[in-house]
Each structure stands twice: as structure tokens, then as C-alpha cells.
Write a structure and sequence with these properties.
495 residues; alpha/beta; Arc Repressor Mutant, subunit A; Aspartate Aminotransferase, domain 1; Aspartate Aminotransferase, domain 2; 8-stranded mixed sheet; 3-stranded antiparallel sheet; 17 helices; globular; binds pyridoxal-5'-phosphate
Length: 495
């Protein structure tokens, strides 16, 4: 067989792996002579060139020693090298949990025990009311490509590491934007660019909470935030949420805590905003305990009725609030760009932690985003998609009203990219059955149940079945069709 065909069919690779395995497991002992290339070629029906190539590779990798005019021999001590090589190779394949070669760290064990849940992908033709993804059609592709091209044209001669706090052009532009759009009073020095809010939460969990320390979280709440804190061994103190958001009067009763994670502008998932009195109560609670408050401002661009109210950060006179924002809701969750507004006292430590974690966020996208913020195209884009999302939300709410009427109560429609639909006549225990019945009609809906902390979920009998309904992915007619089918599913279920 010609050499290139043998190569293409992987024969040389197979032979290489066979020799490496035998050397590794000691079948071919250190110092033992190998067959000549000619003899092996005849024996295996391969070309001599292919066998020579395999020997050369084995020699280059240290498994054999070749000397001109003498037989090649297995390298002494290659058994271990082979075993290490195999281990390196094996790492590319997932290892069953019971076959770990070593033990996991305490953090590793926490992470392994998290039930992160991976929803199966939307099947073709299904109408998916998922919350989280955005529609690719809404992305400002041309503007973004123009910005990226401009940035690439100005690539500097020295490709240096960036400041771990983020690119200066972006931090300047962001500071101006946040002051104008959110009334945030902060200096450029207080800004840290991160790879999405999730990294901000990860840094807070590692830097501000001791293993075994307590963190107040909203329940129901953003489970990815719960996971971020639990991953490092924090104990979660689940605080109730009512129609005005976090019930701050009951915080003190939860006991000591090092940090509170809150979504005050748009409680996730119930959608309320935290009134100013509760914001002050939260800050007083934090001050009494010298606790931190993490304010997750993930979707404030989508207030449809009124402008978002003052942030908790802007009410904070003691420097205990860490404000977190993201571009996952306005541009793309795939971009992995978010920011933190840090109290001055935390800046150095967070910058160092960011540096040892991943140096910094990618420079190109940071600079491209800076351009969008500077030339006003980001604001124009946000105004455009706010109108689009509002139209989708209106279509969804109207369709829910038209097809389900009194059977459904909609919560959290003042803002955001999702609403909660409560099914009045249906107990929480029927949530799964509702999801399955909808799936039979080609509709994916997502129960609110998983937003409750599993150990602190209210007894299912105390609430109705609820769905977290995202609409950012769907066109208006599809939204309507989806709700029509959901109504059919409910009828079948109740029959
Ligand atoms: C409450 C909340 N915070 C933050 C985010 C954004 O996370 P990230 O910036 O890591 O994409 C989301 C996304 O769904 C969210 O629901």
C-alpha cells in the first residue's frame, strides 16, 4: 500500500499506538531490540517507509533509541514515560467519577455535587420559551464587524498583556455610559471588566466568603449565583421574596452572613423591583454585620414603563456594595463580557485575583465594545432592541390573556426578557406534567420550580404551577402560536 494511503488510513498511527502501549506496559522491556524496519514491514504488510516513520516518531518521543547501523532498542525507563503518555492521552476522554486517579479537593467535591442541570437542546420545529439566549437576528452584526475591523487595523506592534482590570478605552467609555444610563458614581479605577457576571460572582465567592461562611440569597432566585457561592463551600441563607422583591425585614432573623446577593432592579425570576425603603434596610443590615452586598443589575436596559430607579450602589455611603452588570442581555451571552463596580478598598485584591485567574478579558472585543459605547451605536442598539423586546413581551402577555384568560396570572411584565406565568387552577406538583403536555404540542416551557433552592423550596402545595417564560428568541407570530398550543396542552392535562 502506498505510504500516503497508509498514513491516511491511520495504519502508521495504529502501529505507533501499539508499540507505545507495549512499551508502557512492559511487554517490550527496556533495552530489548526491536525488529528491523524491513522485517516489520513484511510482517505487517506495510511499506518500509511507514514503519521507519513510526520508529522515528517513537524515538522522538523517547520510547525507543535508534542508532545508525544497529537495531533499534526500547529505551530504558520508557515504561513510565509510556504510562504518563497514556495518562496524558486519557485526559482528553471524560473519566467516570468512580475511576478518579486521585482525590478531588473540597471545592472539587462541592462542584461535583452541584446539580447544574443541562436542558436538552430545542428540537427542530419546537417553539421554545427559554429564558437566556438572544436571537442572532437582533445582534448588531454590521456595527460590530466595523468596530472589530477598526480595532484590528490599529493593532499595536507590541502584543502585551492587558491591565487585569480591563482595557482603559473600555473602562473610560463604560464609566461615562454607567453614569449617564444608571446614575452610577464611580471612577474608572473602580471598574473591573470580567468574563460575564458569572465570573464576577465567582470572584466574590472566592474573595469575600470563607468556606462554611454564610451568604444570603433570594429564594426563588438566580440559581447560577447560588451555585457560584455553594461551589466554594458557602452556606446559603435563603431569604423570602414577595411582590416587592427581597423581604428585607426578615434578613436579621437569618443569622450572621458575610454577603448578600440580590437582584434589586428586576428580581430574578419574579420580576419585582426593590423599593427604596427596602434598599436602605438592606444597606443597614449590611453595615451592622460588615457584610458585602452584591447587586446584580443584569437587565436594567429593559425597563419598559419607567427608567430604572437608583442603584443600591448609588445609595451606599459605606463602600459595601459591589455592582455587577453584563453585556449578555444587550449584545450576546456568547461574548462573555461583564463588569464590576467595586468599592475602592477591594479594587487591588480583585485585580490581582482576576490576573491570577485568567490575566484579563480578551482585548479585541473590549476595544470593539469601547468604540460602540463611544460613538453612540451601543445606545442606539439598546433603544432598538428594547422596542423589539417590548413588542415581544406585549405579544406574549396578550396571547396569554387571549388563550388562557383567568387561568393564568402574569407577574413581572414591567421589564426584562421574561415573565412568570402562574397557572391558577394547577398545583405546583403539576408543573412537570404541564411541561410534558406542552412538549407533546411542540412547545418547550420551563418550570419555575428549579429556581427555588431544592432544600428550601416551599411545600409544593402552597403555590400554583408557574413557568418562567422567555421571549427574546421568538418572533411575534411564533409567540402567539406557542401560547395557543400551550393552552391546548393545559386543556388536555385538565381533562
Ligand atoms: C439574574 C442573572 N444575572 C446575570 C445573568 C447574566 O450572566 P452572564 O453575564 O454570566 O452571562 C443572567 C443571565 O441569564 C441572569 O439571569
Amino acid at each position: 500500500m502506498p505510504k500516503d494511503v497508509e498514513h491516511r488510513t491511520g495504519l502508521s498511527r495504529t502501529l505507533y499506538e501499539e508499540f507505545r502501549a507495549r512499551i508502557a506496559d512492559g511487554t517490550y522491556a527496556g533495552g530489548a531490540p526491536l525488529p528491523s524496519t524491513r522485517a516489520l514491514a513484511v510482517e505487517r504488510g506495510l511499506s518500509r517507509a511507514t514503519v521507519s516513520l513510526v520508529y522515528e516518531q517513537l524515538a522522538a518521543d523517547g520510547f525507543i533509541e535508534s542508532r545508525a547501523g544497529a537495531a533499534s532498542r526500547v529505551a530504558v525507563g520508557a515504561a513510565q514515560a509510556g504510562a504518563a503518555g497514556r495518562a496524558k492521552h486519557a485526559r482528553t476522554r471524560p473519566t467516570a467519577p468512580d475511576r478518579l486517579a486521585g482525590s478531588l479537593s473540597a471545592i472539587g467535591r462541592h462542584i461535583a455535587s452541584l446539580k447544574l442541570g443541562d436542558p436538552s437542546p430545542t428540537a427542530p420545529g419546537e417553539i421554545d420559551f427559554v429564558y437566556g439566549p438572544l436571537s442572532g437576528n437582533d445582534f448588531p452584526t454590521l456595527t460590530w464587524m466595523k468596530a472589530l475591523r477598526a480595532v484590528e487595523r490599529q493593532r499595536s506592534r507590541r502584543l502585551e498583556y492587558e491591565d487585569p482590570r480591563g482595557n482603559m478605552e473600555l473602562r473610560r467609555a463604560l464609566q461615562a455610559h454607567l453614569s449617564q444610563a444608571r446614575g452610577l458614581a464611580c471612577s474608572v479605577e473602580q471598574l473591573l471588566i470580567v468574563n460575564g457576571s458569572q465570573q464576577a460572582l465567582d470572584l466574590c465567592a472566592r474573595l469575600l466568603v470563607d468556606p462554611g461562611g454564610s451568604v444570603v440569597v433570594e429564594n426563588p432566585g438566580y440559581r447560577m449565583a447560588h451555585h457560584a457561592f455553594e461551589a466554594y463551600g458557602a452556606k446559603l441563607l435563603c431569604a423570602d421574596v414577595d411582590s416587592h422583591g427581597l423581604v428585607t425585614e426578615r434578613l436579621a432573623a437569618l443569622g450572621p452572613a458575610q454577603l448578600a446577593y440580590v437582584t434589586p432592579t428586576h428580581q430574578f425570576p419574579l420580576g419585582s423591583f426593590l423599593p427604596i425603603a427596602r434598599r436602605r434596610q438592606l444597606l443597614d443590615w449590611a453595615a451592622e454585620r460588615r457584610a458585602w452586598v452584591v447587586e446584580d443589575d443584569y437587565d436594567s436596559e429593559y425597563r419598559y414603563a419607567v427608567r430604572p430607579e437608583a442603584t443600591v450602589q448609588s445609595l451606599d455611603s459605606r463602600g459595601c456594595v459591589i455592582h455587577v452588570g453584563t453585556f449578555s442581555k444587550t449584545l450576546s451571552p456568547q461574548m462573555r463580557l461583564g463588569y464590576m463596580v467595586l468599592p475602592v478598598a477591594l479594587v487591588g485584591t480583585f485585580a490581582d485575583a482576576k490576573r491570577v485567574t485568567d490575566r484579563h478579558a480578551a482585548t479585541g472585543v473590549q476595544r470593539a465594545l469601547a468604540r460602540l459605547l463611544e460613538d453612540g451605536s451601543y445606545d442606539r442598539h439598546v433603544r432598538r432592541i428594547r422596542r423589539l423586546q417590548q413588542a415581544r413581551q406585549r405579544a406574549l402577555v396578550e396571547a396569554l390573556d387571549r388563550y388562557l384568560g383567568e387561568e393564568v396570572e402574569v407577574q413581572g411584565a414591567a421589564s426584562g426578557l421574561h415573565v412568570v406565568a402562574w397557572f391558577r387552577g394547577l398545583p405546583a406538583t403539576a408543573e412537570r406534567a404541564l411541561v410534558d403536555a406542552a412538549r407533546q404540542q411542540g412547545v418547550r416551557v420551563h418550570p419555575i420550580g428549579p429556581s427555588f433552592h431544592p432544600s428550601k423550596a416551599r411545600p409544593a402545595g402552597q403555590r400554583s404551577a408557574g413557568l418562567v417564560m422567555g421571549y427574546a428568541l421568538l418572533e411575534l407570530d411564533t409567540l402567539e402560536e406557542g401560547i395557543r398550543r400551550l393552552a391546548d396542552a393545559l386543556r388536555q392535562l385538565c381533562r
